[in-house]
Amino acid sequence: MTAQLIDGLKLAHSLRAAMRERARQLEEDGVKPGLAVVLVGADPASAVYVRNKLRACSECGIASRQHLLPAETSEAQVLQLIAQLNEDDSVHGILVQLPLPPHIDVRRVIESIAVDKDVDGFHLYNVGALVIGQSVFPPCTPYGVQLLLDTTGIDVAGKNAVVVGASNIVGKPMALMLLQREATVSICHARTRDLAQYTILADILIVAAGKPGLITGPMVKRGAVVIDVGINRLADGRIVGDVDFDSVRERAAWLTPVPGGVGPMTVTMLMENTLRSAHRAAMQHAPA
Question: Which residues form the Tetrahydrofolate dehydrogenase/cyclohydrolase NAD(P)-binding domain (predicted)?
Answer without folding.
Answer: 139-280
